[in-house]
Design brief:
By secondary structure, this protein is an alpha/beta fold. It has six helices and five strands; from the N terminus they run E-H-E-H-H-E-H-E-H-E-H. It has a single domain, classed as Rossmann fold, CATH 3.40.50.1000. Helix 5 links the parallel strand 4 and strand 5. The longest helix is centred in the middle third of the chain and has 17 residues.
C-alpha cells in the first residue's frame, strides 16, 4: 500500500477564484489573492491538492463539460507558470432542477453537501483522511467534509495563502 498523504480539498468558486456566478470562461476567471501561492506551498509540502466543485451550470445548460474542462486546463497552465499544480479536479454537474435531463437528479450523490466527490477522491488517491482538510466558502462545503470524515474550514474571503498560514497549514 502506498504511503498516505494529506490532501488539501478546495472548493473552486469563492476559494480559488472569485465567484462571479457560473464562471466557465478564462476571460471571466480571476484568482483569489494568494490562491496560486497557497497551491504551490501545499505542493512543496507534499500534500495532494484536489478541487471538489459543484458545477450546476453544466446541468442548467449554461455551459458544457468541455468548456469546464478547458477552464480547468487553463487553470493548470497558469498554476504551472507559478510552480504549482492541482492533482485532480472532481465536479458535480447534476442538480435537482437541471433542465438538461441527463444532469437531473433528485439528490445528486456527488453534489455538495453530499460527500461523493470527496469519497471518490479518497478511493482514487492515497489520502490520509485524518490529516486532510477541506476549504470551502459555503456551509454545503463544510457539510460535505463532515460527512466524508474530513476537517472542514470556512473561507470568508481575503488572501487564501495568508488564511491557510493562520491555520498553521501545511
Amino acid at each position: 500500500m502506498p504511503d498516505l498523504k494529506p490532501a488539501l480539498f478546495l472548493d473552486r468558486d469563492g476559494v480559488l477564484n472569485e465567484d462571479r456566478g457560473y464562471v466557465s470562461r478564462w476571460e471571466d476567471f480571476h484568482w483569489i489573492p494568494g490562491a496560486r501561492e497557497a497551491v504551490a506551498a501545499f505542493n512543496r509540502a507534499g500534500w495532494l491538492v484536489i478541487v471538489v466543485t459543484n458545477q450546476s451550470g453544466v446541468g442548467r445548460g449554461y455551459y458544457t463539460e468541455d468548456a469546464m474542462h478547458a477552464l480547468h486546463a487553463k487553470m493548470q497552465a497558469d498554476l504551472a507558470a507559478a510552480g504549482a499544480r492541482i492533482d485532480a479536479f472532481y465536479h458535480a454537474p447534476q442538480h435537482p432542477e437541471a433542465p438538461v435531463e441527463a444532469y437531473r437528479h433528485p439528490d445528486p450523490p456527488l453534489r455538495k453537501p453530499n460527500p461523493g466527490m470527496i469519497l471518490q477522491a479518497l478511493r482514487d488517491w492515497p489520502i490520509d483522511r485524518e490529516a486532510s482538510v477541506l476549504i470551502g466558502d459555503k456551509p454545503s462545503d463544510l457539510e460535505a467534509a463532515l460527512r466524508a470524515g474530513v476537517r472542514g474550514v470556512l473561507f470568508e474571503g481575503g488572501d487564501l495563502e495568508a488564511f491557510l498560514r493562520r491555520l498553521s497549514l501545511p
